[in-house]
Write a structure and sequence with these properties.
heterodimer, A: ABC transporter involved in vitamin B12 uptake, BtuC, 1% strand, B: alpha/beta, Rossmann fold, 5-stranded parallel β-sheet, 16% strand
């Protein structure tokens, strides 16, 4: 850290600088604390078998969270998560109808739908200046109508091939986790190390300044929705493989957590920098938290309260005036460190 | 022009064929005793029609109504999970002058005023399966409930038979506090004494009947408890995705007492060889509850003899230990999301769920 600090301060937004972001530090500290709590009070929640069962869902939430993060970075909200994920689940299970040969065409069609939904969302929000919440709620309804049109609300059972690809394990690691890590690497690289990614973040932070600097703002804003849809679609396909017999409404439970992980990761709801690694860690945190609540065997009501309290705590860390209170000390100490290392 | 003529022709032919078929179906067998001589129209009102169980149930209700030649018109409306729409469906059927209504009251007592209004305007109103409050003879004609305590007792008896010296039980049900789960627990406790220990938080582990939540709940429970002897669930098919979790712990899937589903039967066939402890016992999922309700409604509306039963008791369906009343059933040629315990034939069910 000491070696990279001065450089990353100079570059201001290199991959390494993310490790310094407050969101990252908070979420890692919280996650470690949670793991410690698990080891003490609910050791069964951190056994290999238990993690094998729960990690795939953390992976799915992580991928959905990354999509939501891209939209939040542009100052928007994407409420079409449930429809989009459910549609991907339905297409991936319904069209092949249990036949492995039908899987590839189904996946292509699912991605086609995701692209179309993303482009529509993007055009509505970026070009027609519709409020993101309104536009994506409408899109969500449209996507659900597609769910009904395709399936009539009736799910089908996953093909063996998809169950193997999404639900299988390699070297003891669930495939869905590998997918999540690969997507994380891709999003991080795209955001932090490519010209387009840097512009994307700059536009999110201040569209007017970016416009004045000669960047074309709208395509970037629209792209956030397209990329997000692709990620939701991927998550939906993974869910279809993980739960052998999914419902047609599998995305419903993902909307709030998808926003929660973005907030827990320290992304500003006004737009700007994204923290992909923190989002994925936050997904693990939320998932582990519910496993913890389940394992200590508290009643369902208390489980819900534990999760809500953790969210309040997490969000409180960012929104309450902690920053101003400790700002002086923090900046002076970082400066000291910098002087030492330079 | 030509095309539309053709279309019209085809439509008339289909219509004619349909009428001929239904006429022959109705007259081929003698009308059952619950089907009286007076002509009547019947409406089936669903609170939420969008899953395979409901589609099979709807098709079952329709098939039951078709047995009675006195039924002149048959309507169906789907409330789509929207209480407002369910209420307006009931009102519009009453306004249309439908003689008998069979209502799946998903919204519970919220639809009672609409039911009462329809009943007072002279229609036969039969809510079924979900308690809507109110009283028979005052707010509606008759409530044809399902006996979930009986389901619990059936599971309890099987558990006692297979684990006479006590067992560790994990009981999974739907949303927190749902009355079905509470009744089932009551039934089990009627049969099982204190040597049978429930591992889940009281009264049951909450799964919302959602396969992905079920999977998470189950993996936490497996990690936490070394010996789970029996899993009891009131929605068997939602376990199909979750049961392979046992393999992550190198443990056999334990005995399972639940409700039936084709996918579950087929899963058992594939998995039981590798899982020596995996015994399966199911009760019927209860699609035929609607038939009893339809019989009541038609009997009241057409002047037939009402059935003797008022409450639907789900019969035992499969038992892998002694094959009584059936060994485990799997029709791999049919969709997983059908229920072989229903009277409606497997092929008809496949058609009903659109596959």
């Amino acid at each position: 850290m000491a070696e990279t600090t001065p450089h990353s301060f100079g570059g201001s937004m290199g991959l390494s600088s993310m490790s310094l972001s407050k969101g990252f530090v908070t979420i890692v500290a919280s996650t470690l604390a949670l793991i410690l709590l698990c080891i003490i009070f609910a050791p069964s929640a951190v056994t290999a078998g238990s993690l094998m069962g729960s990690l795939p869902f953390a992976a799915v939430l992580g991928i959905v969270g990354l999509g939501q993060m891209l939209v939040v970075q542009q100052g928007g909200f994407d409420l079409s998560v449930p429809g989009s994920v459910s549609l991907a689940v339905v297409i991936a299970t319904h069209m092949p109808n249990g036949q492995d040969a039908g899987l590839l065409p189904a996946l292509i069609i699912a991605i086609g739908f995701a692209l179309a939904a993303g482009v529509l969302n993007g055009i509505m929000v970026a070009y027609f200046r519709l409020n993101a919440i309104v536009a994506t709620i409408g899109m969500n309804a449209l996507l659900f109508s597609a769910v009904f049109a395709i399936s009539g609300g009736v799910p089908r059972i996953t093909t063996n091939l998809l169950a193997h690809i999404a639900g299988g394990q390699t070297l003891g690691i669930p495939h869905s986790v590998l997918f999540a890590l690969a997507i994380l690497a891709l999003v991080s690289f795209g955001l932090k190390k490519t010209v387009a990614g840097r512009r994307f973040e700059a536009i999110g932070a201040n569209p007017k300044a970016a416009r004045a600097a000669g960047l074309s703002v709208k395509p970037y804003q629209a792209m956030a929705y397209v990329a997000a849809q692709i990620l939701y679609c991927t998550a939906g396909i993974l869910i279809a493989g993980i739960t052998r017999e999914p419902t047609a409404f599998q995305g419903n439970s993902l909307l709030l957590p998808s926003v929660a992980v973005v907030v827990l990761a320290g992304t500003s709801l006004l737009g700007g920098r994204g923290f992909p690694i923190s989002v994925v860690i936050a997904a693990f945190f939320l998932n582990q938290l519910s496993q913890f609540a389940l394992s200590i065997g508290v009643p369902y009501s208390a489980q819900t309260i534990v999760q809500a309290l953790a969210l309040v705590f997490g969000i409180g860390v960012y929104s309450i005036e902690w920053t101003n209170r400790f700002k002086k000390e923090q900046t002076s100490s970082t400066e000291e460190e910098n002087h030492e290392t330079v | 022009m030509k095309l539309s003529n053709l279309k019209g022709c085809a439509a008339y032919m289909a219509l004619g064929l349909g009428i001929a078929l239904s006429a022959s179906a109705a007259s081929a067998e003698d009308a059952p005793s619950w089907c009286g001589p007076n002509k009547a129209s019947l409406a089936l009102l669903d609170g939420f029609g969008g899953n395979s169980w409901r589609l099979v149930t709807t098709a079952s209700g329709k098939e039951e109504a078709a047995k009675c030649p006195s039924i002149t018109d048959y309507y169906y409306a789907d409330g789509q999970g929207d209480t407002q729409k369910a209420i307006s469906d009931i009102n519009s059927m009453a306004a249309r002058g439908v003689d008998a209504m069979v209502v799946f009251g998903d919204a519970g007592p919220a639809i009672l005023p609409a039911l009462t209004k329809a009943y007072r305007s002279g229609a036969v109103v039969v809510p079924y399966r979900v308690n809507v409050g109110g009283e028979a003879g005052k707010n509606y004609t008759r409530f044809v409930g399902a006996d979930f305590v009986y389901d619990g007792e059936s599971w309890g008896k099987w558990i006692k038979e297979n684990f006479p010296d006590g067992a560790n039980i994990l009981f999974l049900s739907g949303p927190a506090g749902n009355s079905q789960g509470l009744d089932e627990l009551k039934g089990m406790k009627n049969i099982l004494d204190d040597s049978y220990k429930f591992l889940n938080p009281d009264p049951f582990a909450v799964t919302n009947w959602d396969p992905s939540l079920t999977q998470q709940v189950l993996s936490a429970a497996i990690a936490q408890h070394d010996n789970i002897d029996v899993i009891v669930s009131d929605f068997g098919p939602s376990l199909v995705g979750a049961l392979p979790v046992f393999a992550n712990f190198d443990r056999s899937i334990p005995a399972l007492a639940t409700s039936d589903g084709n996918s579950l039967g087929c899963f058992w066939e594939k998995a039981h060889a590798d899982n020596p402890d995996f015994k399966l016992f199911t009760v019927a999922t209860g699609n035929d509850n609607v038939r009893l309700a339809v019989q009541w409604a038609i009997a009241e509306a057409t002047g037939g003899t009402p059935p003797s039963e008022e409450i639907f008791k789900a019969p035992n369906f499969e038992d892998s230990t002694d094959g009584d009343p059936n060994p485990v059933q799997c029709r791999s040629d049919l969709p997983g999301a059908i229920y072989l315990s229903a009277q409606l034939s497997g092929d008809e069910q496949a058609k009903a769920v659109g596959q």
